[in-house]
Structure formats: C-alpha cells, structure tokens
Amino acid sequence: METTCKVLIVDDEMLVRQGIIHLLDWRSEGFEIVGEAANGKEALEMVDLFQPHIILTDVVMPVMGGEELTRIVKGIYPETEIVVLSSFGEFEYVRSTFKSGVADYMLKPKLDKVSLLAVLRKTAQRIPALKYMEWTSEKKQSVDYFLDKLIAGYQNDYHPAEIDSMFIYPCFALLIIAVQDSSSAIKRYEEWVESGLQTDIALLGKPFILRRISHQDHYIRFLLNLESTNRPEAIQVAEHLAEAGIRGNMPLCVALSRNFSGIDEIHEVYSNEILRILDHRFFLPNRNLLVVNEYTEDKSNGSLFDHEAFNAELNRQDFHLALQRLNSYVQSMPGRMDIDMFEFKSFVCHSLFNIIGTLMHLHYEADALDKGKYEYFRFIHEAEHIEEVIPLVEKFLKSAVDCVENKSNPLGIQKILLFIDEHFSNPLTLTDVAKHFHFNPSYLSNYFALHNKEGFIEYLNRVRIEKACVLLREKPHLTISEISNLVGYSDHSYFTKVFRKLMGTSPSHYRKK
Q1: Per residue in 395-414, pLDDT tens?
Q2: What CA–CA distance (Å, rounded) separates 89 from 348?
Q3: CATH no., domain 411-512
C-alpha cells in the first residue's frame, strides 16, 4: 500500500510552478512532488521515470500542450489521474481534455491552499493504491516545507526552538549543484549527490548536518549546518563532489556559499550571492567549483570599455584601432565578476551592429557582413561561456578588416560618395565634384563607374530620392514642391519623373500610402 501520493506539476511558467510548490506543506498532507516540467514533452519523460499518481497540468503550453499530454498519458497509464489548471478563457481546451479522462480542473486565478488540497484529496481517493490513506492531518509544518518557503523568500511563522533542535551548530552554508541536463534527470542526480555527500561528511568525522532543499530548475540545493571552524572541511566536501562529477563525466558545477549565522539569511545568500556567482560561470570557463568568498569583485574588476573612443575611431575610419579596442576588451572577459552576462552579450551585438553600420555608411563592401549579422547575434546570445564568444568576435573582426582592406573599393571613392551624401541638396554636377577633388570630369565619370555599382547621376538621384521619401513621411506640412527644392531639384516635374522611376509611384501617392 502506498504511503504518499506522488504529484507531478506541469506548467510553462516557472513562477506558477513555484507558487503551487510553496502553497502546501506537501509531505505533512500525504503528498510528494516528484518533479516539475515546463511542457508536455518534458512531463512524459518524468511520468515514465517517476510514475506519479496525479498530474497537475496547464492546458496551453509550448512544444506539447495539456490536451495532448492527457491523451497520451491516459492511453499508456490509465491509472494516472490528471487535474487541469486553466485560465478563464480556456474553457474549450479544458472541455476537450475531459474527453480523455481528466479527473478535475481548477482555475489558476482562483487557486488557493484549501481548494487545491480538496481537489487533490478527492482525486487521490479515485486511485486504488491510495484509497486506504488517511487524508486528514494535524501535523505541524515540516522542516522541509519551512526551508523551501524560506529560501524562496516567503515569510514563515515558525518556532525557533524547533529549528534550534534541528540545527545545533552556529553556522550555515548553502551547497548548490548546477546540473546541465534534462529536468527528468535531476531526481537521479539528487539521490547520487546526497549519498556521496553523506559518505564524505561521515569520513571527515566533523560536526556537520546536511539537509536537502527541494530542487529548483537545474539547481540541486543543500543546507549545511556546521561549526565556524569547519569552513575548510565544507570546502573540501564541495571539492570532492566536483571531482566526483569530473570522474563520472557528469555535467555539473558545485557552488558553496559563504558561512552565515542566521537561518533567516538563507534567501539573501541564495538569491543575491550564490545565484549571482552561478550566473558568472559564463565568464569562468572550465570551472566546476565556485566558492563565493574566493571570487570578489575587487579581485576581478577590469577596465571599462571606452565607448566614446571606440565610436570616434570608427567615425574617423581608424578601423584598426577601433577593432583592436573591441577585441582586447572581449579577450579580457574570462574571470571577470563585475560584468552581467546578458549586458555583455547585448554590448557585443550592439558593437558589431555599429561596425557594420559605419562600414555601410562609408560605402565599404560590407554586404556579406550585413547579411550574416543575425547569425552572429544568435550564436552570441546562445553561447554558454565566454570561450564560445571570443572566436566568434575574432571571426567577425577579421571579416571587417578584410572589408576595410579590400582593394576593389579604395578610399578615394568613399570620400567622393560621402561628399555627395553631404551636399546632395546643392545643385551638384559631375563637374562640381570633379573640381572639388581636382579630377578631370571625364576621368571622374570613368573612375566612378569603375568603383561604384551606379554611375554618378544614378547615385546622386538615389540619395536625393531616399531623403525625399523621409521628408514625405515625416514632414506632412511641407509641400511636394518644397521637398523637391530641399533635396536638390529645381525642376518640380523632373523631380516627379525621377521619383516615379525609382519608387514606382508618384510623390503624392507615396505620401498617401
């Protein structure tokens, strides 16, 4: 006969899952959460692994929704009961799940402790293996429930004497194991890790109390209670676990917090210290052991990036200086603790975008870089550590250098194109430009055609019409005749003719659209 009812929670919103987990003291009520999944596909792996009695599932989820999950589970495990969690606007989805044998449903906006417990007990009574269980309980809240609530930041009413009797040593530390594996594997890792830790602590012969806290996402969590003098042994335990992971070829990273004296500090230490250092694994390649007070910001602070100098170098075409500045900064990132991973990735993508924009504006042949920029952005945002970003940036910068040094697009043509871009509103002619650059007009015409995709007149017209389009969109108070003059056309009818040729419509019709 079963002694607890095993429950699996399925919802694509982590906050919803955590809210349900912390709504009840599950063990004292006769229930056990065996896992949580973000979609139906993840849930199916866990159903096969943990054989839950009840599944609490959302309806609308990515990858696989609750309706498909219900149909598959009831087909393979007909004895498993399913309770649907839905929002107000999902009645049709909920109704379709009842055809597959759903036991009950609950509205998420009205979810509370009393109603959830009532539905769980009623559903459990439908399960033959659980029908003899006693579902009324006068037990006090368990220590596990108290710790789960406290580390999540919820306020708890507890009796200090009960906690003092459980944790008899003056110091605490959090030991967190980050597992890069599927959610269904976490339970197996938990049992393996706890067994190894208990054995290691017993061999040390030092006063330690080890308490497992429920896992969250890919983090297995333990609370250590110890004497302040046993800090070196706590680090040794963490080291042994990290080494065991390497020997077993297991993708895990072990993090040990600083010692703290009050159990009520657990949320602060977990959220603002140990999770922070785990986030910085991105900048700490090949590290599978992180001890919080070994990595301080004072120790790892590096120089800030000089955005102003970088932009100035780009604008005056000192590309080698600008690109070397960016490359040196990215190369300095391993080991940094003062940089946020997401801010760094955004900075890199913005810098690459800025380089491409400058090259395009200065008429370098950067079309290939421009077309491939989103691939670079995607790879950078998906990178799991800094060593994946460094070669990407190096590859991009090499391509940018090739653009700058491309002999088919010499510096002279860029200066001519920039001059046209800046003086298009004047009555500009080929002779005017040739005179400015001390060229013979005939030579300039041939030189322009040789080094640019368009001839002089075609390029000048395109620049003027592009500016006219901006004015037509953004300056409704200007007449079309005024816009014609502003972009360098003294003849309104000629402006209309050129505009129609390039844009396929008249200026007035373009403005209306």
Answers
A1: 999 999 988 877 445 556 77
A2: 41
A3: 1.10.10.60
